[in-house]
Design goal:
The protein has seven helices and no strands. The protein is mostly helical and 227 residues long. InterPro entries: Tetraspanin/Peripherin (IPR018499), Tetraspanin_animals (IPR000301), Tetraspanin_EC2_sf (IPR008952). One of its GO terms (cellular component) is plasma membrane.
Length: 227
């Protein structure tokens, strides 16, 4: 059951990371959704296995082992698909980040959500622009870096004064957000894949134990019948 809960948690975290950095778009959730379903199945099958062990039923334990084999095959399939699709997801994410950055520089009211998105990304990841602060200056409309590109200085001065000081002294973050975002998403994806591989080994141990227990129960039953 614990394995199922951990898989669900890891998939939800990965889904949240991708959604949080998708530039107001939704992408790359398919493998995470399948993993959440697999996690729920693991919880149900684990409860079934516990019931079979409690009842000392070889048939239920064999069914439990068979279900674990199916789950392992599902996990391996999802893991391979996730590893194969990861570059595509990260490429799509990169395209969406660049598209949303253009709208971030817009002064239109309907694009305010993109400005809020980039302010959140830049302040939380301590980065500026797509590839760097020059993205604000080198493309139309030419703007100074956003105030969210500036590290907090901890003073009580007004925000306008803080921003003016940050811009004039070039104190803003120098690293672009694209590298930070893709690194964060890649790390979250690798965590899910590694967890899936590790749990496959643990489930193989569970299959071996279930088969051994079923065999032991059958041997004991035959011994009682003979006696």
């Amino acid at each position: 059951m614990v394995l199922g809960i951990v898989i669900i948690a890891a998939a939800c975290v990965d889904m949240g990371v991708i959604k949080g950095f998708a530039g107001m778009e939704t992408t790359g959730h398919e493998t995470d959704i399948v993993l959440i379903v697999v996690g729920v199945l693991i919880i149900i099958v684990a409860a079934f296995g516990c019931f079979g062990a409690w009842k000392e039923s070889p048939k239920l334990l064999y069914i439990f082992a068979g279900c674990l084999i199916v789950i392992i095959l599902l996990e391996l399939s999802v893991g391979i698909a996730a590893a194969a699709l990861r570059p595509q997801i990260e490429g799509t994410l990169k395209t969406q980040l660049r598209a949303s950055f253009i709208k971030n520089k817009s002064t239109r009211e309907e694009d305010s959500t993109y400005r809020e998105f980039w302010d959140r990304v830049q302040s939380s990841l301590e980065c500026c622009g797509v590839t760097g602060p020059d993205n604000y200056v080198n493309s139309e409309p030419r703007l100074n870096p956003s105030f969210s590109c500036c590290p907090p200085d901890g003073s009580d001065r007004a925000d306008e004064i803080k921003r003016s000081d940050c811009i004039s002294l070039a104190k803003y973050y120098q690293q672009g957000c694209e590298e930070r975002v893709l690194g964060t998403v890649h790390s979250a994806g690798m965590t899910v894949i590694v967890c899936g591989i590790l749990f496959c080994f643990l489930e193989v141990i569970g299959i071996v134990l279930a088969l051994w227990l079923a065999h032991s129960i059958k041997t004991q039953d035959k011994g009682r019948e003979t006696a």
